[in-house]
Model the fold of this input.
Amino acid sequence: MELKDSPDSSFAGWTPEQIVAARRWVNLWKETGPELERIRRVELRSTNTVVAMQRLAGWFESAQFLQRPRGHSGLVEQQALFARWKPASNG
Done:
């Protein structure tokens, strides 16, 4: 990621120190991201699904006991929001 300090850049108001720190942060994630992904894959492959489900079962039962189901999923409200956000020019 190239950080440029031009008048059109969103980094125009950044100090040189902030730009250096941002470059360091980007480079760190470029190096760290693949390693974190490798670790995630190893953990997923080594996870015993049956044991994980058994450990979570109590939480699910507790949630069912403590939280009554809602009468609706919220999908209707979501669709109404999407309809309002849709630009009028698209029909």
Summary: The mean pLDDT is 86. Residues 77 and 83 are 10 Å apart (CA to CA).
